[in-house]
Amino acid sequence: MTKITIHNVETNEVIFREMNEEELAEWEQTKSQEQINIKIEIAKIAKRDAILVRLGLTEEEVLLLIS
Amino acid sequence: MAATIFPALIPAGGLTLLSTTTLSGASTTISNINQNHKNLLIVGDTLNDNSDSNSFIQLNGNSTSTAYQSIRSGYSYITADAGTQNWARYTSISNGFVHFLAAPFAATTNYKSVMWIYDYTNTTPKNVTIQTGMALNGSGEYSAMNNIGTYEGGSGITSLKYYSLGSILTGTIKIYGA
Q1: pTM
Q2: B-contacting residues in A 41-60 (Cβ below 8 Å)
Q3: Which of A8, B78, B118, B169 is within CB 3.0–4.6 Å of B48 for a Cys-Cys bond?
Q4: Chain centroid, CA B169 distance in Å
């Protein structure tokens, strides 16, 4: 099981417990969504790098061109 | 006279430490945040997780990704030697939770992420967040990230949830009111 911490900063009460079913379902959904976002960003970087290789330009040369 | 986009960052009273929370588990929620200030400064210290820097903040437990809009830019894994061009630069515009960078895999050096939330008690306008952070991975490579974003949750901010896609190893979050 996956544990979570809840800190109520008004009362300073700290609860450390297992996720309930609803929290766990939301957690799994959040994780898969973020993993998709990360994959999209990595794919964009790879595509850009491939274009640079095709053009025979370094990153520094591109920065010079657009500066 | 030009319109003021942001309220004054730090009012005459200065910063007030509202809370210090030790992070643990898959996520840590900081609830019942004091509502008596204008802006919030969130400071994450010694943030380490086991998911290669993939740590985030959700506001008010809102898990709807479209409530968050951000432009982020950063550098992934730059070696300390500037002559070694082993890095990727990126810029993206996306929906998604606020990326709050942590150092992965129990790095020995402490790194911080900081974030401002403007006008956090206001329920009507968008809250603007500015976040910046830096981290070091287990191979001695650095990554850095900057986010500027809005939160469109439609209510003032009373809680935040810090979470890692893996699990939190170490870290504290201090919240200051300004």
Answers
A1: 0.77
A2: 41, 44-45, 49, 58-60
A3: B169
A4: 17
Task: Tell me how many residue pairs between chain A and chain B have CB atoms under 8 A apart.
Answer: 79
Q: Which residues of chain B have pLDDT under 70?
A: 1-11, 50-54, 72, 74-111, 124-127, 134-143
Q: Determine the 3-state secondary structure of B10 from DSSP.
A: coil
**Taking CA atoms, what residue in A is nearest to B85?**
A59
At position B99, the amino acid (one-letter code) is: H
The candidate with the shortest Cα–Cα distance to B27, out of A54, A63, A16, is A16
Number of residues written out for chain B:
178
ipTM greater than 0.85, yes or no?
no
Q: Are B52 and B105 in contact (CB under 8 A)?
A: yes
Q: Is B23 helix (H, G, I), strand (E, B) or coil?
A: coil
A20 shares contact with chain B (CB less than 8 Å): no
